[in-house]
Amino acid sequence: MKKFNVFVTRKIPEVGLDLLGKVCKLEIYPHNRSLTKKELLKLVHGRDGLITLLSDKIDSSVINGAGPQLKVISNYAAGFENIDVAEATKRKILVTNTPGILSKTTAELAWALLLAVARRIPQGDVFTRDGKFKGWDPLLFLGQDIYGKTLGIIGAGKIGTEFALLSKGYKMDVLYSSRHRNLTLEKELFAQKVTLDQLLRHSDVISLHVPLTKETFHLIGRKEFAKMKRSAIFINSSRGAVVEETALVEALKKNKIFGAGLDVYEKEPQLAPGLKNLSNVVLAPHTGSASQATREKMAILAAQNLRAGLRGERPQHLVNKGLIV
Ligand code: DGY
Question: What is the C-alpha to C-alpha distance for residues 307 and 301, in angstroms, rounded to an integer?
């Protein structure tokens, strides 16, 4: 039987690749960097299926350049704003993603950022390593308490919900802004659904959990930072472009908020000018889902989605849900 021809744009955990090995002829991009557009166009050509990353821009030229045999694009991520889903749908190509399994891991990273910002952990670490710690000091690295404070969740989907639930031990008052009511948060945490304006004005911690869409692009900009408390901590583990990064840099520079923890950037992997020089921001290299176990589960799910689609079955996590399979 002819094996399906599959291209994987970067090495992912072996467990996923093993699942595909039996039914597919696999080619994996061998370099540890993103493909250039030219490479992408060349390497997708003639493939039945693709496993792609959120850093691969799968636009109409890539989709059409692959050829009429392309059946499935399996994104190794929960987000899929890197793929032109409308174009894929037009061509009846299945687009799949890996939601759910990474929610807890991403929520944990967002909490790690929050605690690091609140208690200035990275600055203290550098200070201690540099031999500057000369003994207990009543005024050394004073930060913010989290316990009993007000937590504002923007976007109460899977990851936002997990992030909020982790606040239980900190006995926080939870506010959320979302298109839909979240009964889990209301029942478990007595969370209140509020407007974005109310959330920004009343929260001590603001954590962003919306996907990047036309509606959420630059959702948080100069006006929104101006509404936040001066003591507020802002966390973004969703997508960089939901925040107008120059406005964030300005808010941090002028101490309009206490600090920020970021896992994602507007022009990833580039940082906004001035961001890396600020001491009130903690920066992570988009490692929200980066635990060994979760990345393996993502690899298995991406492979299962791809395999199902290639066999003409409906994949578990189909993004273009309207397609009849
Ligand atoms: C996703 O899956 O969208 C995450 O950002 C990956 O860490």
Answer: 10
- Selected catalytic residue, list 10, 202, 209, 239: 239
For the chain, the distance separating the N- and C-terminal CA atoms, rounded to the nearest angstrom, is 22
Examine the residue annotation and report whether 224 is marked as an active-site residue of this protein: no
Helices (H) and strands (E) in the chain, counts: 12, 12
Distance 12 CA to ligand 1 centre (A): 14
Helices (H), 148-239: 158-165, 183-189, 196-202, 222-227
**Does the global pTM surpass 0.85?**
yes
> Which residue has a Cα nearest atom 4 of ligand 1?
77
**311 a catalytic residue:** no
Domain-wise residue ranges, the chain: 4-99+292-310, 103-283
Residues with CB under 6 A from ligand 1: 54, 77-79, 102, 288-289
Do residues 152 and 205 make contact, with C-beta atoms less than 8 angstroms apart? yes
Residue pLDDT, tens place only, 228-282? 999 999 999 999 999 999 999 999 999 999 999 999 999 999 999 999 999 999 9
Give the architecture-level CATH label for domain 103-283.
3-Layer(aba) Sandwich (3.40)
Say if 4-99+292-310 and 103-283 have the same CATH topology: yes
> Using omega within 30 degrees of 0 as the cis cutoff, is the peptide bond preceding 138 cis?
no
Which residue has its alpha carbon closest to ligand 1 atom 2? 77
